[in-house]
Amino acid sequence: MGVLGKEIRMNRLMNQESGKLLAVAVDQAMARGIFEELMPIDRKLSEIVEGGPDAITMHKGIADTCFRKHAGKAGLILKASTFSPWQPNYDTWVTEVDEAVRLGADAISMGCIVGGDDQPEQLRNLGIISGQASQNGLPTIAHIYPRGNQIPEDEKGDWRHVAYAVRAGAELGIDIVKTKYTGDPDSFHKVVSSTPGKVVVAGGDIGNNVEDYFQMVYDVVEAGGAGITFGRIVWNNQNPTAIVKAFKNIIHENGTVNETIELYNELINQPANL
């Protein structure tokens, strides 16, 4: 049950030419607080969609009120959990699978922190939602990070911990795992090799230099990663449309970093066609 539906939705999510994913996340408000750069959210969504991402991750309320006019232009990934500024290492379940189906989502996503005291409960939630989503023909995406309190701070970027997080997702039936980049292609290739599933990276916090992000995305693809799900570096940009198109050049069109920088510089001052 649900096998064909899941395949159809996965094919809508993943670019049919490259087989990779370029997604943008706008689910940060409950988790990290209010960002002026995400205001007003409906206009920001329009600027992002104009760039042509494969999908956008958001919570159900924003999907229901702001995503309607973009239906069919980008895939919808519905976020089913969130942490908060006061509980940064615990993702609580806030949305059921049937709500994602009702809203026409192409996938449902859930956060999970490994290496902490709450790991057993968070992994249990991930396993449950994976099974429920599969029954309903819905792909699952897990945002899994090794940042629990039992992992020393200087080890949270170690590829072995990242690989553990990624493999845990695969063991629980997750279709796509979003995690942190380990800093270099060789170590990230080990992460990708640790799982039979697809691995995409989060933007993280490597500063505001877009050239650094272009290099990171290029290295991720070269290491075998399945793409990206970026948030702040996209919606915090003066021209979200331009930076999405630039990332597309690397992920879907095999562009080099230098080619992408040239393209971005051409696009950055062009107004979005909203």
TrEMBL record:
Q: Which SMART domains match?
A: DeoC
Active site, UniProt feature: Y145, K178
Highest taxon of the source? Bacteria
The record's annotation in InterPro entries points to: Aldolase_TIM, DeoC/FbaB/LacD_aldolase, DeoC/FbaB_aldolase, FbaB-like
Coiled-coil boundaries: none
One example of the protein's molecular function in GO is: fructose-bisphosphate aldolase activity
Family matches, as NCBIfam families: PRK07226.1
Provide the protein name: Fructose-bisphosphate aldolase
Source species: Halobacillus andaensis
